[in-house]
Amino acid sequence: MINYWVEGLKIALQPNNLLLMLIGTVGGIIVGALPGVTSSMGIILLLPFTYYLDPKSALLMLAGMYSGSMFGGSISAVLLGVPGTPSAAATLIDGYPLGRQGKAGKAIFTALIASFSGGILSGIVLVFLAPILASFALRFSPIDYFALAIFGLSIIASVSGKHLLKGIISGLLGLFISTVGIENIRGSTRFTFGISQLSAGFELLPVLIGVFAITEILMELEQKGQETKIQHRISEVFLTKEEFKSIIIPILVGAIIGIVIGVIPGTGGTIATFLAYNVLKNISKRKEKFGKGAVEGVAVVECANNAVTGGAMVPTLALGVPGDVVTAVMLGAMILIGVRPGPLLFQATPDLVYSFFAGWFIIQFMMLVVGFVSTLTAPYILEIPKKILMPIVLIFAIIGSFAIRNSLYDVAIALIFGLLGYFMRKHNFPATPLILGIILGPMAEQNLNRALILSGNDYTVMFKSPISLTLLILAVLSILLGVISGKREGKVGGVKKWREKMK
């Protein structure tokens, strides 16, 4: 174990990897701070630049983007009154009023300290829990992997929010898309319609670029001329001794809730932040301050937000099941750079796993330094007009699609899926279930086929394995929890109305 850590630390501390982590972290903070440019989009746009990197270096760079973007969302929440990422929506409740009181700097600095704490504490849990979970998963048979894929697909209920039926339709479409090409077990060709390029199925990166990046660009075109203005400027930044003491308990509360929620697949930062805020408000002696500019409110929300990142990486790395929406994209990104998440990852490439663990903690310290600088420079970054920003994003999206195989075919696929994503967004079909279907579909199909071959076409085999049966029960519970949380989605949607009222 110590040897793995030493080797991992050596890899993470290589100058080129430190530079890549820094680039990822800076890019993540900028991406998170810019409304309309999501964490998922940032990871996808970064992918083409990782194609020619060593998988270890590429994964560290993506981790920097992931962590940085989680903090970046708080900047626009405080300065613009618009969350840069969905999970920063709860930051508005106290962050925006603090900005109105001339304490925007304090609000962002509090968010930075809390995000750093959440990242470090969740990283510790990731380091200890992921190897244990991966070791247990080595016992899995093909039918257990099938049940695991079904459990992963049950996340669709959670990420669909109020639109459960549309989420299911989106997921089924993703499963159908995953069947295009040559079937791995029997070698039969499906749904290629005589197009030779479709024999290998759809390349994942153009699909991701289309569904997330190009769709977002098309949505922004509808809002031409609607620029968001800076509401507050940065003045005082540092917390007083009393204020610093007051955020210790909120940070601990946020960390515990964020880590627990993060480890549960299909939950995510938005649920964790609102739950943490509600818990702290109920136990606080200063309930009357919440919603009017309490630094404790900002601290608990941002700590929970970043604690989710490490927690969500536990099932993603150990089982290959994404913990939330962003890690669903991270899962696809890892597959594209040659990293296959799952229990065998810890046995086959321990140097990659432990370099990621070491890099995770280094990234949190980088975020602390870069985040402080961004606190002072954020107003200038946020004033980049969208008429300049979106064409740059489009250029990166097209170049990224073309660079995979130097083929215009992949650019066409990205554009087609961009139009599909646009249609889905306009009609409230969530995109994440589509991606989950595409990623987890082959895993479910191939392992079910293997299990049926081994059992002589006995479909009851999935109920005979204790692991498989447990995972199927968890899948049912996940669906039920998703339905319940979808009914509570109005609390998140109510933030927009609240912000308008504040103005």
From TrEMBL:
Q: Transmembrane ranges? A: 20-47, 59-82, 107-133, 145-161, 167-186, 198-219, 247-280, 317-337, 357-382, 394-424, 467-486
Q: Which domain of life is it from?
A: Bacteria
Domain named DUF112 is located at: 18-436
Q: Which InterPro entries match?
A: DUF112_TM
Q: Which key words are in the record?
A: Membrane, Transmembrane, Transmembrane helix
Supply the name of the protein.
C4-dicarboxylate ABC transporter permease
User: What species is this protein from?
Assistant: Dictyoglomus thermophilum
Source lineage: Bacteria, Pseudomonadati, Dictyoglomota, Dictyoglomia, Dictyoglomales
